[in-house]
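User: Predict the structure for this protein chain, please.
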Amino acid sequence: FGSSSARGMVRVEDGWRLGAQHAKVLAQLLVLFSLSFDVSAQIVDLTDTPVPEKYSLDLLYSFYVYAHEDAPAKEFGPPTVRFHDLSSHTLPGAPTADVQTATTAVQMSLMKYERFWEFIDPHHFCCLRDDIERGRCEKDGSLLLKEGANDKDEGVIIHDIPFHTEGDGPVEDTKRILRETGVYILMFSNCQGSNPPVAVTGRVSVKNPYGYLPGTEYYKLPFYGWLSVLYTVLAFVWLGLSVKWWREALSLHACIAGVIFLGLMECFFFFVFFSDWNSDGIRSNVFFVVGLLSSVSKSIFSYMLVLVAALGWGTTRPYLDRATITWIQGVSLFYIGFGVTKETVLSFRHSHSLPVSFVLLCVLPASIVNGGIFFWVFSALGNLMTTLEERRQTEKLKVYQQLWWVLIFSLVVASCALVYQLCTLSSDISTRWEHKWLLTAGVSDMLFLVVLMAMMYLWAPNKHSQKYAYSAADCATTSEEKPIVSEWAAEELGGDNDEFWEETHGGISPFGDGPLPETIGATSRPTSAGVLQDAIADLEKMGLDTPQAKVE
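Assistant: Here is the predicted structure, written as structure tokens:
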């Protein structure tokens, strides 16, 4: 009894007898380990695949199938399994005598996972002559089911793999209907007494009522389709606001536009990827790689956007110091490398025999970097809110407090989803596969969208956008000092001076209705034209000649 992921096996010798307890425990471990590496495609190509060792079973893949009445879409009728051009043949150097024994001993079976132990006895799963005499099976060397079970059952399909030589014609395809919803195991069995170098070539495909997508992946197709539509709407909304208030635009607005674009790219290419997979049954590496790179880029770009906002970039400081920028660049590079590695390994772990230790080695670094980024964000955000509170910049403080609660909400939901996923790992896979996509894609993508929409709402372009921008006057303001306003701020504010200062500082503009200074050239209108006009007026009062120049 063996597995494609772990080539261990239970050999049955001396009348198919083994220590019952040890054989059963080993068999269960091998089945569970095999199912942790489920299929990533509904079409399995076999090219010169060696047959299992004698008296053994190999668990190749697991398929997730919806019965016709349970399927979310039913364009193609009931689900089917097709054995296409499946045949065995010898490898170079095989003895002729041994080849003849292989012609009827190798079989391919499809069996429901939840009923596996109803069909298979790990101590006796190959048909012997005694079993034929007792009527339990019809052919020596074929797969033997437990007493009371037979190959007419809806939960099991057994297919003989014919032996093929060069002079033989094409092998006829076999198509069977699957009538029950569930997880199906694809198995190799070799019940021959000898072990010739025989290989199998052909294809096994399982098609659901809606197409070739596995049942665990189907809901991602409409999910990414609707997300693409939503990101498109957000892109047009943000573009419209940016064009309308382009004079008030901040660097943060351009960064948010970049995140929207990357999110749209990710959802669009994953939608095309799953649509193509559903139609052809083969994964497109091109669409997958582009979608993967867009996904990782979107994640790190958005994390860094929240981080630099929490560090006060454009709010309490005009720029970040060189050391901080170097750290951000380093973390981003590490995240991209670890993120691409993690997503690639998790995607292909189903179709390749990857050790659990290797999978964990690829997943843990990305998770550690992710946790470090979140810790950095919350620490920086806490310090920023303290600074804003000390400077009594209440408008900016309210914005970051709202962002804080949005991030807390997202973190709590993500933690609950992770705990739930860990708790369900020990549960039967046949009871949770239909909702698996929610934990692998749905929760994380929806949480990301919630945070993005919150940032769009908090920092939407409007006529008061400059209120949230960095200003030297904000940094110089204390509870005992009168606000100082830079010349560029006064020019930009125009006639809304008093309104702005009343909203942000609770007082009247320092260059409002107060008395004019007595110094020549001083003015309450801090513009170049205003300074020149006041200086000329002062000279006229003193009886001095004024320059013959027109003041615009």
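The longest helix spans residues 356-390.
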